[in-house]
Write a structure and sequence with these properties.
Number of helices: 12
Order of helices and strands: HHHEEHHEHEHEEEEEHEHHEHEEEEH
Largest sheet: 9 strands, mixed
CATH class of the largest domain: Alpha Beta
Radius of gyration: 20 Å
Strand content: 15-25%
Structural class: alpha/beta
Shape: globular
Strand order of the largest sheet: 5-4-3-10-11-14-12-13-15
CATH topology of the largest domain: Rossmann fold
Distance between the termini: 42 Å
Number of domains: 2
């Protein structure tokens, strides 16, 4: 009975925008007042309450401090933590340091490929940066609803340089795939031709060559375990010398990558180092979190603290590591790439503190 009354109360709040906004503000304040080492207050307490205030098909609009506007479906932790951002107009939608480094790398890019573009949380920022130079973002997103949101967000921000694509990036251009799993957690599996919700694959090289793109400057891939295949499909570009080969940001996850012998002994790392790349883990929150003024912390691949439950994080591969010899970056060692507020600060907080 008490649970039923609580759900009814939350439903009443959910249908009044002012009440809902006020409750979310109070929950964020609650997070700042609670000292609970070892307890992820957002994931275990406040987040589920906020989840109860929204429907999966609800479209939310939110504007960044830069004026960039996003519309998105409330279907993931990405949406939830963006809604709960502090400040309310943050400088990013998702993953603060990932967003910052992508904009930095885009400053010297014109042609960009994104695999797993989702609703455009990173694609829009990159496209805005490269638009004045005539740059183009080739944004691959097989999820039809999220690709529609990507298209909508390009229009909202007056961007005509995002090319939404429905194919899945892969190691060949003749496989049929389908998405298995829900929304941002969906991974690709081989499917029969004509399967419901199926889609075709394409390699980065085949796609770019068919469209007359000779130079590729930046690759961004977060496709739930298909990263290795996508990079194999870009090898003609990866083989180019420093200054011509693309910079790369990609996700690795313990569910898909066996790093028990060290990250450098994984197939994806060997592929990249074999083409002359230097690899770094990017330290970041898997969330929306204000890190304005903090340097972007990078861990050399041989010095990453990998212990813990199965987890994933982003990595950066460049052929000229001197690009990180600025005050915007800090090279750190023997720490985790996962920023976690509720875990050991020596391993999981920025070296300079939160």
């Amino acid at each position: 009975m008490a649970q039923d009354k609580a759900l009814i109360a939350l439903d009443r709040i959910a249908h009044d925008d002012a009440w809902r906004t006020a409750l979310i503000r109070q929950l964020i304040a609650f997070e700042g007042q609670i000292d609970a080492p070892g307890v992820d207050v957002r994931e275990e307490i406040t987040g589920p309450i906020v989840d109860a205030l929204f429907d999966d098909d609800q479209v939310i609009r939110k504007t960044l401090s830069s004026g960039v506007t996003f519309e998105f479906l409330y279907r993931s932790k990405i949406a939830r933590d963006f809604v709960m951002s502090q400040p309310e107009a943050p400088d990013h939608a998702w993953e603060p340091q990932t967003s910052r480094i992508l904009v930095n790398l885009a400053k010297r890019a014109k042609q960009v490929v994104i695999g797993g573009a989702y609703f455009g949380d990173h694609a829009v920022l990159i496209a805005k940066e490269i638009a004045p130079r005539g740059g183009v973002v080739h944004a691959f997103e097989p999820n039809n609803e999220q690709r529609a949101m990507l298209t909508r967000n390009a229009a909202l921000n007056g961007l005509t340089n995002i090319v939404p694509r429905s194919e899945g990036l892969w190691s060949d251009s003749n496989t049929n795939l389908k998405l298995v799993g829900y929304d941002s957690f969906a991974s690709a599996e081989v499917a029969e031709a004509g399967a419901e919700d199926g889609f075709k694959t394409v390699t980065i090289a085949d796609y770019l060559q068919a469209n007359g793109v000779g130079q590729l400057d930046l690759i961004v891939i977060d496709i739930e375990g298909a990263e290795l295949g996508a990079l194999k499909g870009a090898e003609p570009y990866l083989a180019m010398p420093a200054g011509q080969a693309p910079d790369i940001l990609f996700e690795v996850h313990r569910h898909y990558v066996d790093w028990s012998n060290g990250l450098l002994d994984t197939e994806i790392a060997r592929l990249l180092t074999g083409h002359g790349y230097h690899l770094f883990a990017l330290r970041d929150f898997n969330s929306n979190y204000d890190l304005a003024g903090k340097p972007i912390e990078l861990i050399p691949a041989e010095a990453i603290h990998l212990d813990g439950p199965p987890h994933g994080f982003n990595m950066v591969a460049v052929k000229d590591p001197s690009v990180f010899d600025t005050d915007a970056y800090a090279i750190v060692r023997d720490v985790s790439p996962k920023y976690l507020r509720h875990k050991d600060p020596k391993l999981h907080h920025p070296v300079g503190g939160l």
